[in-house]
Design a protein that fits this description.
By secondary structure, the chain is mainly α. It is 64% helix and 0% strand. It has a domain at 29-79.
């Protein structure tokens, strides 16, 4: 459980950082934005896969497909839903 909470906290920081980067890049050239986003992607890919997955599934990347993120059984965990 401790690891799960650590993953969720890290995911919150990833989301905050991604938003701050996007905000800071406003008005920059498309080439610069592409480069910065590539560096961010490379950095995120060094993190544990489970954290990146939670980040993606919790809305960190809204355009995974044309219709948005694909729903899956793991959404029960990410969304905090489920029966108790």
């Amino acid at each position: 459980m401790e690891s799960a909470m650590q993953d969720i906290n890290q995911t919150r920081l990833m989301t905050k950082m991604a938003g701050m980067i996007e905000f800071a890049m406003q008005g920059q050239s498309p080439d610069y934005k592409k480069e910065v986003r590539g560096v961010r992607k490379d950095f995120f890919c060094t993190l544990p896969v489970r954290r990146v997955w939670i980040f993606l599934k919790s809305g960190g990347r809204k355009n995974l497909s044309k219709d948005g993120p694909v729903a899956g059984p793991e959404d029960v965990i990410v969304d905090g839903k489920g029966s108790r």
